[in-house]
Amino acid sequence: MKTTSKETKGFKKSPEVTIVNTVNSQIDIAFNYIAPINVMHIFRGNSIIPAVVDTSIKRGWNKAGLQRTVQFKDGSSAKETLLTVNTPTSFSYKSEQFTSKVLKTLVKRFEGEWVFTDLGDQKTKIEWTYRAVPTNFFTRILVKSVLIKALGSVLQNAMNIIKSDLESGHTENGTTWKSQEQNSDLIQVFGKA
What we know:
The chain has helices spanning about 5-10, 25-35, 40, 100-105, 135-170, 170-175, 180-190, and strands at about 15-25, 50-55, 65-70, 75-85, 90-95, 105-120, 125-135. The protein is α+β, with helices and mostly antiparallel strands. It has a seven-stranded antiparallel β-sheet with strand order 1-7-6-5-4-3-2. A hairpin with a 3-residue loop joins β4 and β5.
């Protein structure tokens, strides 16, 4: 189920961050909310990682092989491919073909993986791993020391939003899609991580 490839193995271990949280939600509800979630709602960015402002596919993001373009607040974009969907226990994806000059220089791609574990008593453990596959050995140092740390704070903020949504029952923001202007207003209201 890991999304590592032959390219990743060449770096021994690509830099990664894993966010783990337990939510008061049944596993199927958590999975069905998170897998197709509105990434503009949760991926708000910080001083290093720009917020997501749009995607080319807004509904039906639930089948392996689907691809979409993700647009970021700084005007850059990336191609995202859904690699696996194992309802309700896991899904994985990769982001690549960055238009950002910085990301294009530092990483070949990001690999994301979500794993859901039913803990019983309507509780679910969620593990979200983001792995950066550097362009070379030298960029690996910068990716590990700066980029992964910044990404970790963005992912933790996203996980906090998800947990709050699921536990409060207010999931409409994660399942509805707003325009770029409306999303920018949300980012200004809620701030950055």
